[in-house]
Task: inverse folding
């Protein structure tokens, strides 16, 4: 197991992952289903954020950063339905979606169930309860 650090609601949280742990797994671990809200994981720098596909192995993402890893963070934040749908698609499906822009996709929606209170209160309670 490897410990990574993920930012959610402005709090940096340690998370133990393996080489098969996906972005979806980390989001599911750090969010609860108390209210309807979709989440996605982003690779974040001071200049931009890149949406990460739900099926991406987290360790593979981090090792791909190479020497620039010190400049990047993993961030989980609430997103709208459209962004959630994009995160649920493979890279090839997203490319095709951008070209066609018809809004129809065969990608399964994996964000359902990754919902939380918008203010993060239940997340804070969850973290404090585990300490």
Result:
């Amino acid at each position: 197991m490897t410990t990574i650090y993920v930012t959610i609601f402005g709090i940096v949280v340690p998370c133990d992952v393996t080489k098969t742990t996906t972005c979806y797994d980390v989001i599911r671990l750090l969010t609860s289903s108390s209210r309807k809200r979709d989440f996605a994981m982003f690779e974040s720098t001071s200049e931009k954020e890149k949406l990460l596909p739900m099926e991406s192995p987290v360790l593979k993402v981090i090792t791909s950063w190479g020497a620039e890893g010190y400049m990047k963070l993993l961030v989980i934040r609430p997103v709208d339905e459209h962004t959630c749908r994009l995160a649920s698609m493979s890279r090839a499906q997203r490319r095709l979606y951008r070209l066609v822009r018809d809004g129809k996709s065969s990608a399964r929606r994996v964000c359902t169930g990754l919902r939380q209170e918008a203010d993060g209160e239940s997340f804070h309670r969850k973290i404090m309860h585990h300490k």
Observations:
- The longest strand covers residues 2-8.
